[in-house]
Records
---
Amino acid sequence: MNAPRQSRSVARLAAVQALYQMEVTRAGVEDVIREFRDHRFGADIEGEALAEADEPFFADLARGVVGDQKAIDTAVTRRLAAGWRLDRLDATVRAILRCATFELLDRPDVPHEVVINEYLEISKSFFAGTEVGFVNGILDAVARDDRTA
């Protein structure tokens, strides 16, 4: 994987983690962006340097999801089974769906296929069960909705 693409992949994973953190701790987006910039990016784990993140892209994702959350949640909820609410989903699944949906709807510079693939890989890093297929189904449907809008 080339460095710019890998740095965006790392930024996407960090954005999912940041959204999860914001939901669990009720921290604001700017506080979480600052924490990631000051304490997480450029760090290492057990002596192994972490891959570089595209920090501006990370901040754009985090701010974008927070700023457009109502429209994002509407787009996702439209594709849930009848009677399901977004708040019934696992918090990590919600964060993945929100980040991906933001990119699908608000980042025309990134092809839908790339967005879906990136977030499926992120899903696989958190889940080994049916969640990955669930995420794929929702994101495919949101992408179809966006193409026909």
---
Amino acid sequence: MNWRLMLLTFGTVFLAELGDKTQLAMLAFAAANRSFWSVFVGSALALVLASVLAMLVGTVLARCLPARWVSLGAGVLFIVIGAVLVARNLRPVC
């Protein structure tokens, strides 16, 4: 196991997840239902499944495309999603 890569991945995901919508939703679920373990297990399983799917897709893409293209594609996708969100929020609310 590549411990450096594992720690880098852990740190990146941990910092990226702090204060995001998922964490706030889990806070609301836990507060509304007072069932810590149900919310914890459900959210942990969801995060694990999402991570497994991302790694499977990444592994397939890595076999077909150079890593540089995959990184570039991910960056472009983030920019497009950001632009769509900005454009959607700039429209006047009726």
